[in-house]
Structures are given as structure tokens and as C-alpha cells.
Amino acid sequence: MSGSSYLTQIERRLKPGDHLCSFYENKTEQFQVVLPFLKRGLDLGEKCAYIADENTVAEIKAGLLAHGVDVGRRLESGQLTVVTAREFYLRLGRFDPRAMMSFVISAVNEAVREGYPGLRVAGESTWILKDLNSLDDFLEYETMGNAALRNLPVKALCQYNVNRFLGSIIMKVLQTHSRVLLGLDLYENPFCEPLPAR
User: Fold this and answer.
1) With contact defined as beta carbons under 8 Å apart, do 64 and 35 qualify?
2) Residue ranges, the chain, pLDDT below 70
3) At what angle do helices 167-174 and 135-149 cross, to 10 degrees?
4) Cα dist. 178→51, 108, 195, 198 in Å?
5) Closest Cα partner for 125 from 92, 173, 64?
6) Is 173 exposed, middle or buried (0-12, 13-18, 19+ CB in 10 A)?
7) What is the model's pLDDT at position 183?
8) Rounded to an integer, what distance in angstroms lies between the CA atom of residue 163 and that of residue 25?
9) How far is 90 from 35, CA to CA, in rounded Å?
10) Angle 27-43/57-66 helices, nearest 10 degrees?
11) What's residue 7's pLDDT?
12) d(Cα 96, Cα 41) in Å, to the nearest integer?
């Protein structure tokens, strides 16, 4: 499936409150999904944020530039933010799932107050491998996202490199996301505990 097909086939199925996970084996697979995801959000006028770890901030900016994004203008206007996992997830010096979720919800509300239709976030999850003591807290945060975000104008994409994570961790990740991107295909996730109807 091409990048444009991704936008038409997957993007039209996304809805506010979606909390997705994405699995990839290499940077090419990762960028095929996440860069069009962000570009589409920018094109729709959404506020967008990227949390980098496995890739550098410069690599993400260069990738977006190669996808036709005027990165300098978007950064200057505040519509686009690209930060490191340390700056985002560990902004308090440690990972606190409840404080982190409150921060995300505040960021969504702030985006709306600023006049954006919503917030779109994509984050790399490899940072957790440097601090496995935070793994349970991070999985709690991922679980909280399903309920906390589902009525908000936000789309969140959590990215996992399958070559870096143990299968046992991947299975736990699957339990915390209702929808999964595998390559350029979007699937409903049968391993996730369903939430009550909206």
C-alpha cells in the first residue's frame, strides 16, 4: 500500500480519541506509517507532537521535510513540536503515569483553546528499555489512555520496534491498545479488554 493509499484507507477510519499502537521492524517501516500520520494531522490543521527516542529529533524533522512538510514554519507557529522522550515522558525526573496522563489531557485542552481542532501525538517507546523499572508504570499509562482519551479530540500513536522488545512485553502492549497498525494495515485488536460503550 502506498503512502497515499495509507492516508485514504487508514486515516478515514481514525476518529477522535483513538489510541493506536504500531509495530515495525526497521526505520523504513516506521516512517512509512508515522510520517504520513503526522503530515495528515498538520494538513488538517491539528496540533501535532512527536516524541523521539530511537530516532533523533533532527531525523524526524528531516523525514517530515522529505514528506513535504514546511517544518520550520510549523515549528515556529507552534503547530508542530518534536521533543525527546526524556523531555516528555521523564519531564518530572521520573515516569509518573497519572501525572503524565494529566499532562497529555491538558495538552489536548490547550490545543483546542489555541484554536486547533485537536491534538495528534506520535511517540517512540524504546526509551522504556533504558529504565525497565518504569515498564509497569508505562503500561498503566497506556491502559489509562484508552479511557482518558476516548472522548477527547486527540489521536495517539505509540510505536514499538519488534526487534527491541521481548514478545512478552509486546503481548502486554497489545492488551492496552484497541487498534493496531501492522505495517500499513489497521486492525481491531482482539487482545485488548474492551471499554464500555460511549
Assistant:
1) yes
2) 1-8, 132, 193-198
3) 20
4) 21, 20, 9, 14
5) 173
6) buried
7) 74
8) 6
9) 24
10) 70
11) 57
12) 28
Q: What fold does the segment set 3-185 form as a domain?
A: Rossmann fold (3.40.50)
Cell of 48: 501535532
* pLDDT at res. 8: 62
Burial 66-95 (b: 16+ CB within 10 A, else e): eeebebeebeeeebbbbbebeebbbeeeeb
DSSP string, the chain: --HHHHHHHTGGG--TT-EEEEEESSHHHHHHHHHHHHHHHHHTT-EEEEEESSS-HHHHHHHHHHTT--HHHHHHHTSEEEEEHHHHTTTTSS--HHHHHHHHHHHHHHHHHTT-S-EEEEEE-GGGGG-GGGHHHHHHHHHHHHHHHTTSSEEEEEEEETTTS-HHHHHHHHTT-SEEEETTEEEE-TTSPPPPP-
Question: Is the pTM for the entire model greater than 0.85?
Answer: yes
The span from the first CA to the last CA of the chain, in angstroms, equals 32
